[in-house]
Design goal:
Keywords: Phosphoprotein. It comes from Xanthomonas citri pv. fuscans. This is Response regulatory domain-containing protein. There is one protein chain. The protein is of the alpha/beta class and 126 residues long. The chain has a single domain, classed as Rossmann fold. 37% of the residues lie in helices and 21% in strands. It has four helices and seven strands. Strand 4 and strand 5 form a beta hairpin. Helix 2 packs parallel to helix 3. The chain is globular. The two termini are 26 Å apart. 32% of the residues are buried. The mean pLDDT is 91.
């Protein structure tokens, strides 16, 4: 399922469920994405974003090991990195400042993920 629109993009994955993280990693690699992570906790994700490592987009679980991922989302916003939330929680749990962002419910299908990332790419280029 190689996707030329996603080829070479560096996507940060913040997900604490090992099986979901591995599944998402495999899906993204198959689509031609260079995966940053997966990262399984908020402090490591914050450190990675603060390091200045090149990131073209991100997929964030809302609750990572009992912590809200919102500080990571804020750091990505400060850097101008587009991101989407992927979670088992309802989108209405998001703070108002994130209400306009793309969101997918778990379990997600491959088309949903690649569509979110393509949308991130289009948004970032405008």
């Amino acid at each position: 399922m190689y996707d030329t629109a996603l080829a070479g993009r560096r996507i940060l994955v913040v997900e604490d469920d090992y099986l979901l993280a591995e599944s998402l990693n495999d899906l993204l690699v198959e689509a031609g994405v260079s995966v940053v992570g997966p990262v399984g906790n908020v402090p490591d994700a914050l450190s990675l974003v603060a390091s200045g490592q090149a990131i073209d987009g991100a997929l964030l679980d809302v609750n990572v090991r009992g912590q809200a991922v919102f500080p990571v989302a804020d750091a990505l916003m400060e850097r101008g990195v587009p991101f989407s939330f992927c979670s088992g929680y309802d989108r209405y749990t998001l703070p108002q400042r994130f209400a306009h962002l793309s969101y997918c419910m778990k379990p997600y299908n491959p088309r949903t993920i690649t569509s979110l990332l393509s949308h991130q790419s289009e948004t970032a280029s405008h």
